[in-house]
Amino acid sequence: MPLPRRRLVAASILLVLEGMTFGLLVTESVTGAIAAVGFTAVSFWAHVILHECGHLVAAKLLRLPVVAVRIAPFTGWRSEVSVRPAPSATALPLRMVLFYLGGPLTNLCTAAALGAATTLTSTPLTRLALLGAALFAALLGLANLIPATSPHSDGRNLLRWLRAPTATGAALRAAYYQEDVSRMLRAVAHREVDDRPGNPARDGDNPRLALAAFQRRWSTGHTHSTAAYIADAERLAALARAHSTDPRAAAAIGQVLTVQFGMWYLYAAVVNGAPVERREVLEISELAQLALHVRPHTMSARVAMSLAHLLNQRPEHARSLLVDVRPSADLPALCSVALLLRAIAECHLGNHAVADTLISAAGSDYRQLKQVVAAIRAADPMPPLFAPAPMADT
How confident is the model at residue 25 (pLDDT cuts 50, 70, 90)? Predict the structure, then answer.
């Protein structure tokens, strides 16, 4: 049994024993004490359900898209209602605050109603059961309002939307963009890495296994910190450059690192107004060239190299690599990415009508990348994508 679940079981047993002791003192009857405590314990299920129903009703009233509903008390799993609001939605901070308040307020209102109901009965057993249920409801509501370390904490998310709505909205947009990048990486790395069952990905000097381990960490979110993630990427880049590395493995590493970091450099330059350092652009170009040299005609290598050209502010070179790309049923994800990268190149070259046609042809995927393309399309003048190299002192 996992440790969190063992703790939950132990806490529940202790709470039941304490409740039965208190119930026995009040009712002076073992049967009454068991009945009161049993009702109180069962009421916790109802309070959890009401809590999530409060979130769900709030989401529906506020027109926030609901993507998941899970209710699992006493199982060790998290109960939650997940929403996926559009970052550009009207009055989003206020709507998100009301959404996160929906669950705790439902519990507190339930506690008030149960407390009021105790005044309508004169039976000690019934009064004890109602007071216990009211206490559970109040504790659940208040506990969820306290900011916790979990990213799913109602209190933590409330505080973030209240104190820094702009930064929280920006983080939401970045999270959605990462989903686009992850989808793109899966398309680029498809069948590039030997990661079959029985050949587990683990860290080491084998380039393919190291790349598989890196991909598994970013896809599952198991990277402990940004520094650790960057250190893994630097080690992969060193393996790709090593003379002993198989060229196809080096190409696969070059493609993955170019797309992962290149897409975020593009986002930082366009959305955050933070041009990338020239040194980073040169590293991206070197890794992309490894892939293009080994497999010059594959779509994934061309996509990686075109991204490097865009970051290098060479839109004509990026366009030349992608000019023959058309929507295809064989590689739909890569084709969509290629069309959007070419749209960026056309925007930089002043061909806005062509860029609009390409954006439309890319289909409905990669919405966040489309917003980046739209930002470049609307920019006047075009945003610089990399910082000029510092001049040497004379």
Answer: very low
